[in-house]
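C-alpha cells as discussed.
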C-alpha cells in the first residue's frame, strides 16, 4: 500500500494534485474533515462526540480525530494506497499517524510538500475566490493570517519528516501538468 501525505499552504494546489495522483496511481483521498462529516451523518458514537465539539465551536481533540482516522483506515486496508490531506497538522498528530499505521503494518512512504511563495498563494486565492465564491479566499488579510498559521504549524512537521527521510519538496509554481510531472517522478521511485 502506498501512503502519501500531501502538505501545502492554502492555494498551493493540494486538491488539484491529489486528484491527479488518485487517477494516476489508484489512490484514495482521505480528508479528516470528510471522515468527521461522514461519522456525524451516520450518527455513530464517534460522530455524536464530534458533533458535540463542533456545535460548541471547538476543535476536535487529537485523540478523537485519530480514532476516526483509525476506523477509516481499517475500512480501507484493501486499497492500493492513500493520500492523507489535512492530517497530520501537528507533530503529535504525525506521531499518532505513524503509530496507527504501524499497528496495521503500514507506514508513510512519502510526504510531498507543495512549495510556493506567499505572494503567489495570495494571488491564487484571490483569483479562486472570484471563481468559486469561497468566503475564506476573498480577503487578503484573512488569507495572510491563514498562511501564517500554516507556516507556524507546518515547519515542525517538515522537520520531522525530513528527519525520517520521507519529505519531498516540490515546486508548486507552474502549469498544473508540470507540477504533477514533478510529483509523478517522486511517486514512481517509491
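Sequence:
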Amino acid at each position: 500500500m502506498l501512503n502519501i501525505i500531501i502538505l501545502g499552504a492554502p492555494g498551493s494546489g493540494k486538491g488539484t494534485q491529489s486528484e491527479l495522483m488518485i487517477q494516476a496511481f489508484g489512490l484514495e483521498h482521505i480528508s479528516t474533515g470528510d471522515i468527521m462529516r461522514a461519522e456525524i451523518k451516520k450518527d455513530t458514537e464517534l460522530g455524536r462526540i464530534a458533533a458535540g465539539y463542533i456545535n460548541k465551536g471547538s476543535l476536535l481533540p487529537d485523540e478523537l480525530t485519530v480514532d476516526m482516522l483509525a476506523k477509516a483506515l481499517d475500512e480501507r486496508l484493501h486499497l492500493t494506497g492513500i493520500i492523507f490531506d489535512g492530517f497530520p497538522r501537528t507533530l503529535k498528530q504525525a506521531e499518532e499517524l505513524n503509530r496507527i499505521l504501524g499497528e496495521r503494518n503500514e507506514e508513510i512512504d512519502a510526504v510531498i510538500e507543495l512549495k510556493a511563495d506567499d505572494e503567489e498563494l495570495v494571488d491564487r486565492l484571490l483569483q479562486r475566490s472570484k471563481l468559486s465564491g469561497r468566503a475564506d479566499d476573498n480577503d487578503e488579510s484573512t488569507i495572510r493570517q491563514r498562511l501564517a498559521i500554516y507556516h507556524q504549524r507546518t515547519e515542525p512537521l517538515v522537520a520531522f519528516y525530513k528527519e525520517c527521510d520521507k519529505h519531498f519538496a516540490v515546486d508548486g509554481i507552474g502549469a498544473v501538468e508540470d507540477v504533477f510531472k514533478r510529483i509523478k517522478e517522486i511517486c514512481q521511485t517509491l
